[in-house]
Hints:
Elements: H1 9-39, H2 45-72, H3 81-87, H4 99-127, H5 130-153
Helix pairs in contact: 1-2, 1-3, 1-4, 2-5, 4-5
Amino acid sequence: MAIDIGIAKKDREAVAKQLSKLLADTYSLYLKTHSFHWNITGPQFNSLHNMFEVQYNELWTAADEIAERIRILDVFAPGSYSQFGKLTSIKEESGVPEWKNMVAQLVEGHEIAAATSREVIKVADEAGDEGSADMVTGRLKEHEKTAWMLRSLLA
């Protein structure tokens, strides 16, 4: 059955393309945060271990919401490491940095995801896709808040 939600196919595809970048950023940030949760050491262990757990759970839920929004637009969502690697702007960390570097990397990742969110909102607004714009506005606020909280640890 053909989709008819009031957004033209080319506009749905344009929004989904941007949402796919946000999904890749979200999943990449999820992986990094979860790895840091497992591998944190030092005097900040307990607080950061718990903080990172809250953050990776939030990112996991967000990834599902973003992927489902892509499907609502009748586009297939990316779902492999190779696809995410091509779409994300977040740098992979293959080592185990000290805690301050972990926090700095997560600040940078959330700021990147916030910038990606802004791009999605622009495209969604141009397409008349209030549903995507609304969802991503919530994501933008979450990334900005998390970046602020993490950045405060480094002050």
